[in-house]
Design a protein that fits this description.
Helices cover 78% and strands 0% of the residues. By secondary structure, it is mainly α.
Length: 313
């Protein structure tokens, strides 16, 4: 493993760690404010955190390097990518935030990680071939999801369904990032993404919720962590870390957030999963790993296009 791959892998691992712990802050934040309020404030904080970073990086590049960046970067593409990511992120984070109110941190983390299976499946609609290993992985993942989420009444709980929808939307988010990240500045696109997400969630906040300053101040710790670390740092690390990496490998590393969320819920919130739920987690994680194993030719069996896989190099 060369230094570049190691560095990008560590960035994505750090992303997964921050996201895994963020499930705790998202759960705790719901004790004080509504989902739209939480997402609006944390997204706007994330955008504000990145503004000085953009100015610093611009100054650091300077001279010929800065001019070369402007030559490569199409501002229209940057704006389009940022807004598209922001709209998708607003939808995904809203479903996730609502779902977390009705399920545990650990279960939410594992269900969200279903995007690792859904990403190649979405490729079917783009007429991309799905290998046998992906099909087997889906069957195992569904079995794991059943053990993890089904109750005695044999139905998904409301929170589980919302987080599952979130995972589907996050699948689109990963694919959109994979398309735009090689074309534009990752930090700038991330800033536009959070600004868009914050505005959309802010509109919903005033329409459907009653935000109060004292409650926001009471929730300052989880909101600040979610805003600075989960948004400002982690989502930017995702965009930067995916650049130059095979998206399949990147998705596998980021899916470790599911394991970290379970550990974080156990350590910080004293959440304990039953044996049945632990088995479901194990099956889902096994499906995630199986889906990413290389085939006989050394390449993963995914439905992601070769153009998407090579665009970052």
């Amino acid at each position: 493993m060369n230094r570049f791959v190691l560095r990008q892998s560590l960035l994505l691992l750090l992303t997964a760690t921050i996201w895994g712990v963020a499930f705790v802050s998202q759960s705790v934040g719901m004790d004080y404010v509504g989902p739209f309020t939480f997402n609006a404030v944390r997204s706007l904080i994330g955008a504000m955190v990145l503004i000085p970073c953009i100015a610093f990086l611009k100054k650091l590049q300077g001279g010929d390097g800065e001019r070369e960046v402007h030559k490569r970067e199409d501002k229209k593409t940057l704006l389009t990518g940022g807004i598209c990511c922001g709209v998708i992120l607003a939808l995904a984070s809203s479903f996730q935030q609502f779902g977390i109110q009705y399920t545990t941190v650990g279960k939410a983390g594992f269900i969200t990680a279903m995007y690792i299976i859904l990403v190649p499946l979405l490729g079917i609609f783009a007429k991309k071939k799905v290998g046998l290993r992906i099909g087997i992985s889906v069957v195992i993942a569904v079995a794991g999801l059943y053990l993890l989420c089904m109750t005695e009444s044999l139905k998904l709980e409301a929170g589980d369904i919302m987080v599952l929808i979130c995972a589907l939307i996050f699948s689109f988010h990963i694919m959109v990032i994979d398309h735009f990240s090689p074309l534009v500045d990752g930090v700038k696109m991330s800033c536009i993404q959070f600004l868009t997400c914050g505005i959309l969630c802010g509109i919903c906040m005033f329409l459907f919720e009653d935000p109060k300053l004292p409650m926001l101040l009471a929730a300052w710790k989880p909101i600040l962590y979610a805003g600075v670390m989960s948004c400002g740092v982690a989502y930017t690390l995702q965009i930067v870390g995916q650049k130059g990496m095979n998206p399949t490998v990147a998705s596998l590393i980021m899916s470790l957030e599911s394991v970290i969320s379970v550990l974080a819920g156990f350590v910080l919130l004293d959440e304990v999963l039953s044996r049945r739920e632990l088995l479901g987690c194990a099956l889902m994680f096994g499906a995630i790993v199986l889906a990413q194993l290389p085939g006989r030719d050394g390449k993963p069996e995914t439905a992601v296009s070769e153009e998407a896989q090579n665009s970052n190099y």
